[in-house]
Amino acid sequence: MEKIGPIEMDLQVLVGKEIKASGRTIWPVTRIAVLKGCGDMVLSIQIKPLAMLILEPAGSYAVSFAGEPMTIEAILELAPSLRDVLEKAGEAGQD
Questions:
Q1: Rounded to whole angstroms, how far apart are CA atoms 77 and 74?
Q2: Is 16 helix (H, G, I), strand (E, B) or coil?
Q3: Could you read off the pLDDT of 11-66 as tens digits, one per residue?
Q4: Number of domains observed in the structure of the chain
Q5: What are φ and ψ of residue 69, in 5° steps?
Q6: Domain that holds residue 50
């Protein structure tokens, strides 16, 4: 059997590209976990959608894919870069 060496886990939470639909802007948030062996050999990849930030003329809100309520503050903890998105939306009068 081939030895795979020390195993590393690379875990990142990423914000996807904005999606515009019917006056709404949707920002998906996804967790990507990569399990690596020696020499950067990829052993496993897991991609899990976590939540969405939704901006619309009436306001902004977050939706969790786990089926649990999610606040704006909770999604900002997952993906701090969304704070800039909310600030720009507020400046444009969307928030």
A1: 5
A2: coil
A3: 999 999 999 999 999 999 999 999 998 877 899 999 999 999 999 999 999 999 99
A4: 1
A5: -60, 145
A6: 8-91
